[in-house]
Structures are given as structure tokens and as C-alpha cells.
Amino acid sequence: MSTIITILIIAIIAALVIVGLKETIKHSKGEGACCGGGAMKEDEEATVQLDGEIVTRADVHIDGMHCMNCKNSVTRSLQKMSGVSADVDLK
Fold first, then answer.
1. For a Cys staple, 32 with which of 13, 27, 40, 66, CB 3.0–4.6 Å?
2. What gap in Å lies between CA 72 and CA 78, rounded to an integer?
3. pTM of the predicted model over 0.85
């Protein structure tokens, strides 16, 4: 009886490890969900076209962005600011 329980526990742990590895690989490729949301497609990002001349341009390097959801979240946050248009690139 204890052999069956041991085998069952090992099978459950193996299944959890396999699922964890799959999700880790997806995340490292930028395909998985991260930052509290599901992966979003590029066409879902918000774009804003501002009228008038460009007064200031700033290039900002942000560490830790891994997926399209990160990119869209940063884009939306920046574009909520008055007079700001953002072009966020994961590279």
C-alpha cells in the first residue's frame, strides 16, 4: 500500500515540475503571462497621436520587461499622462 502512495506522490510532483518547466520556457520566450495579466497581442496596445510640434523627446531604458503585456502596460501608463505619446520597444 505504501508503495502505491509513494508512486502517486512522485507522479504528482513530476507533473508539477513538468508544468512549471513548460511555463518557465514560455515565459523566457516572452510568450507567457507575466506582470499579473495574460499575454496580449501587439494590436491591442493603445496608440495616441498628438497634434503639434514635439517639444521634448526622451529615450528611457526600463529593465524587467519580458512580454507584450509588459510593453502594453508601460505604453498605457505613459499615454495616460497629459501630452505624452509613447513608443515602447521590448528590445
1. 27
2. 10
3. no
Give first-to-last CA distance, the chain, whole Å.
Answer: 55
**DSSP 3-state of 5:** helix
Q: Name the more confident of 91 and 60.
A: 60
The residue segments making up the domain with residue 38 are 2-79
Total domain count, the chain: 1
User: How sure is the predictor about 34, in pLDDT bands with cuts at 50, 70 and 90?
Assistant: low
Residue-by-residue DSSP string for 11-78:
HHHHHHHHHHHHHHHHHHTT-S-BTTB----GGGS------S----------TT--SHHHHHHHHHHH
